[in-house]
């Protein structure tokens, strides 16, 4: 069954009513991909695509993406689209200032450019293969590839030949609205009749629409004129200004777009305006502009308004699965944040962030309570108990509402700090008629209006004084949910129990609600985390993971008459069959907002399920759910992009044509051959894969939870040699051999230089310094009077001393020790290192130590000694210092160096 949008009809005065339209609109502009912001024409085809004609382009919209069809005309003014319509086989035809066009694949095909080469203003398909084309040079009739031209006036330049609108009646007449009056043509003989009247001083029309036996003609300045095709009588109809668009869906409603006054819905039966949609500054929910150049109300009730210089506005689709509660004109819950509800036959108690509301439909009573009558407008919880309603607030204590007198009274004046000014989070009645109250100061129990128990963290095992939830299961065991975890209440002993929970149970978490289903399973809904399920004995339990609930805050649970579990979250509403299926419900289903609070839902005796939402009280029933969730269009794979500028990238685009807010779109998909399970997709309608291996795949997509909506696409990835496993393996092997060869070359160079380095590590530096006999020392050494020749001789002495005595093997060696051995002042040796050798003392000595380490490894001593022992033999007193210096000197670690050698034979 096809779902239709329910409109709320506002009855107002005949002209320029003062009401607006509360439906939510979404706008499309350049940032969304629309190429031009002047929208002149709109059409929706049978697949579900919406076609948009602008001043320069033709666009196809699927609810998420726009596909651009370039018009191959050089003159920009001639590109302007005036009209779009469909023909047999779901062909899309378009008329613009250059002529007549047809969509052919991804391009536009010009129809008879040698004949129809003027402005096309109107198109009308008769459903039998014939297309009527209204232009500025007369009428053209297209049928089976042949074109016939009919002049309304023999003078080609006459305004009568400018045909702005076409309509067919059921008597074989074609009606034409022109710039010089109304004309009709008999289809059998092509006879032309002019229809003008002195009663209406208008002879130029912009558009035409036939409803029953009346033609409605739009004018540029005088609104709408009506013409009865039975009596041939004109009459002024409604002066709404400049009429840019007229249409009807055959239900007796006339849809009129205007340039300056927005859009009007007109009942032609009652001859009155039933709805006006317009732009109002600082108001939400209306159009962005009152200059409506094109207007379409499609068969699904979605309103499309093409605007001047602002693009396109359209109303977001919603079906009838959920309704938002209102009572006559007295109460409307829309936009109220619902925190608690009580449903009793004809009575509705509704607690919100903005106060308390009581409705009795049987007595036709509606009463609201707010500040100053309430000390706090934030209603947190409620309970229907012994014929009265008990209400908890945040910061205003607790009240009792007597529905007989519809009066409020304080619950307990003897506890003013809490029950008058405190926080009340939960109110629950138990099996024995006791009233349990969760507060910011622990748990209270009342019997016959008197307090009989009080548990807090000081006098009991209550984990925390902030008690957010209380629940009694079918064994009459109590569950108390606090800020710091859960405890059980043993009603036989009145004790709170915290030490009887099994290991890995969920008792240490903040639990929002506990719910028991008909199979006696307990569901624990954590503030953050996975849904936890346990039996009553607490012996069998598990967490429900890898579901659409992952990552969401769980707020409430309720089992319906079919055994499905309704679960509300901070980001959506779900219905769970307790097996593998999760059905999701969004804005498109009538949910006003994705955010739900910790408001416990209720099921009435009539089977109606009531759920509090952040923007209203909603209700539904299982019958509506099972019979109603049908969408007007099937999912369709709209495009496949292979490559997209990146090698190995494949993107699959699809649409469900629901035209709701894209953020609420929910799909499931999988690629057979790559993915085993269904993947959840929210807020997107495209999937991208990278570097698919060669082979065959089947891509499947469906609406979340709707197995009957599944569509599929076969994908074949051809074999590419460079992407084959053996080719990749060969490349990896060659790369490894190259790296290994380079490594061995470096190791050989290191080993060959070791003995030489031990003999004369500074020779290359000395050779470079030999050409610098006239070097200039730094200022701090200017008084040393040492020459380059002196430095050369001192370097030779230093080299022989270190080599012969192996002074570097002393880990405590200081520059002063070397100076004493050489019998020179320490500052002279410092000068030698820093000015002549251009190295600091520690690097110089550590290079000898590194060379000694290489020498010992080449001798095979690493097979006898540990690495730490070798480090000490070389003179290093720090393993970290050795590793750091070795890596800096050789480019590899000591272990890598050792692995490159084998013990000599």
As residue ranges, the low-confidence spans are: 1-21, 748-783
* Mean pLDDT reading: 88
Strand content: 35-45%
Helix content range: 10-25%
Shape: flat
Q: What is the tally of beta strands?
A: 65
Sheet with most strands: strand arrangement = 1-28-27-26
Gap between N and C termini: 90 Å
Radius of gyration: 43 Å
Backbone structural class: mainly beta
The largest pleated sheet is described as: 4 strands, antiparallel
How many distinct helices?
11
Structure description:
The chain is mainly beta and 905 residues long. It is 15% helix and 38% strand. It is built from 11 helices and 65 strands. A 4-stranded antiparallel β-sheet has the order 1-28-27-26, with no helix packed on it. Strand 45 (478-482) and strand 46 (485-490) form a beta hairpin. Helix 3 (725-759) packs across helix 8 (841-858) and helix 8 packs across helix 9 (867-874). The relative contact order is 0.06. The model is unreliable at 1-21 and 748-783 (pLDDT under 50).
